[in-house]
From TrEMBL:
Listed cofactors: FAD
Organism in which the protein naturally occurs: Candidatus Accumulibacter affinis
Pfam family, one: DAO
Source species, domain of life: Bacteria
Domain FAD dependent oxidoreductase: 7-372
Lineage: Bacteria, Pseudomonadati, Pseudomonadota, Betaproteobacteria, Candidatus Accumulibacter
Protein family per UniProt: Belongs to the L2HGDH family.
UniProt keyword terms in alphabetical order: FAD, Flavoprotein, Oxidoreductase
InterPro entries for this protein: FAD-dep_OxRdtase, FAD/NAD-bd_sf
Name the record gives this protein: NAD(P)/FAD-dependent oxidoreductase
MF terms in GO: (S)-2-hydroxyglutarate dehydrogenase activity
């Protein structure tokens, strides 16, 4: 039976960042990915926004790791040639009754260390974005957009140069927790059983199922797994805005917002469509990423709250993503759950549960956090 020092399960942006962090610290690392390419699920199907960190409760992992990760990501992009742009973002109140919530976001951002937020009057916001309608807005100058594929390619390049290897089409079939580490069964065309000293479960949408597949892991510590689908629609023609535009957050997400890609194309989304929860113990199936064109029917009314000039028939289906959540539609939003030996008592195992937004922004900070946890154990 072969042995390896560390196995990272999942080659999304967070898994690749963790593999890079371990390999650069001299740890022999293998990345197992069930798909035929890296980053083909949550990491490839999102808004590609580099968040500033203003939405999350002070001292939460989301707040701390987003703010730290944002700074790290700026430097990483500059040194690795990853395309990105600090275009800025406006979060808007579209009625006076929303302004107290907007002020609360301003205070939350300041408490989280986002020092460059600015309150704008309706006139000041319109001066920056003439087609915007609002009663007030927050300007977040440090929010930006990024080429997520380019980021993952750079992370993988660093990891491989440090000695890590990526095994595609290699789903984890199961494993066992033993006194001396872990025995893992990897499926695919070249199935393999091997030992590992360290396991980082960065399986995203399937992280609870992966943890449950490890014989000896206490089932009471498994969070509920919820999937929330979000659809995006592109705007025909030129974007009316040079910045991202967000309404106030809603249950399950940040509202139907306008984002830009690096080519200047505008898109709207995501909405929130709660999918049936995965069934514990059932095989991991395929996800349906098709965009239902009829869901766009609800978009114009939401968009016209802040952009009255949206033309009829201007939206076309683009793509959909699915967010890994550990809180359901009736629950309060959950923090990242980075579950290590202090929580479950198993040496060498880190479970990354509920790593949704701002996971991309926080990826480098999450990786440093994981490496510090697992190597200190």
């Amino acid at each position: 039976m072969e042995s390896v020092a560390a196995v990272v399960i999942g080659a999304g942006v967070v898994g690749l960042a963790c593999a890079r962090a371990l390999a650069q610290r001299g740890v022999e690392t293998v990345i197992l990915e069930r798909n035929d390419a890296f980053g083909s699920e949550t990491s490839a199907r999102n808004s590609e926004v580099m968040h500033a960190g203003l939405y999350y409760p002070t001292a939460s992992l989301k707040a701390r790791l987003c703010v730290a990760g944002r700074r790290q990501l700026d430097e990483f992009c500059a040194t690795h040639g990853v395309r990105h742009r600090r275009c800025g973002k406006l979060i808007v109140a579209t009625a006076a009754v929303q302004e107290d919530r907007l002020r609360a976001l301003l205070l939350q951002g300041h408490a989280n260390g986002v020092a460059d937020l600015r309150w704008l009057s309706a006139a000041a916001a319109s001066a920056r974005e003439p087609q915007l309608r609002c009663t007030a807005a927050l300007l977040s100058p440090s929010t930006g957009i990024i080429d997520s594929h380019g980021l993952m390619l750079a992370l993988l390049g660093d990891a491989e140069r440090a000695g890590a290897s990526l095994a595609l089409r290699s789903p984890l079939r199961g494993g066992a927790i033993e006194n001396a580490g872990f025995v893992l069964d990897s499926g695919g065309a070249d199935s393999l059983r091997f030992r590992a000293n360290l396991v980082i479960n960065a399986a995203g949408l399937w992280a609870p199922e992966v943890a449950a597949s490890l014989a000896g892991f206490p089932s009471a510590l498994l969070p509920r797994n919820h999937h929330a689908k979000g659809s995006y629609y592109t705007l025909a023609g030129r974007s009316p805005f040079s910045r991202l535009v967000y309404p106030l957050p809603e249950t399950g997400g940040l509202g139907v917002h306008l984002t830009l890609d690096l080519g200047g194309q505008a898109r709207f989304g995501p909405d929130v469509e709660w999918l049936p929860d995965p069934i514990p113990g059932q095989p991991i199936g395929k996800l349906d990423y098709r965009v239902d064109a009829t869901r766009a029917d609800a978009f114009p009314a939401e968009i016209r709250r802040y952009w009255p000039g949206l033309p009829d028939g201007a939206l076309a289906p683009a793509y959909a993503g699915i967010r890994p959540k550990i809180a359901g539609p009736a629950d309060a939003a959950a923090d990242f759950l980075i579950q290590g030996p202090a929580q479950h008592g198993i040496r060498g195992l880190i479970n990354l549960f509920g790593i949704e937004s701002p996971g991309l922004t926080a990826s480098l900070a999450i990786a440093d956090y994981v490496a510090a946890e697992v190597l200190a154990d």
